[in-house]
Q: What sequence folds into this?
C-alpha cells in the first residue's frame, strides 16, 4: 500500500514530467512552424 504522502509525491512527479513533455512538444511545433517557412 502507498501512503497518502507517497501518492501526493507521485502525483507531483507525474505533473512535473507531463509539463516538461508538453513544453518540449510545444517547442517542437513552434520550431516546425517557424523553420518550415524558409
A:
Amino acid at each position: 500500500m502507498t501512503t497518502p504522502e507517497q501518492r501526493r509525491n507521485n502525483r507531483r512527479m507525474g505533473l512535473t514530467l507531463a509539463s516538461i513533455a508538453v513544453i518540449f512538444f510545444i517547442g517542437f511545433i513552434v520550431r516546425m512552424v517557424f523553420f518550415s517557412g524558409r
Remarks:
- The chain has a mean pLDDT of 94.
- Helices lie at 4-36.
- The two ends are 55 Å apart (CA to CA).
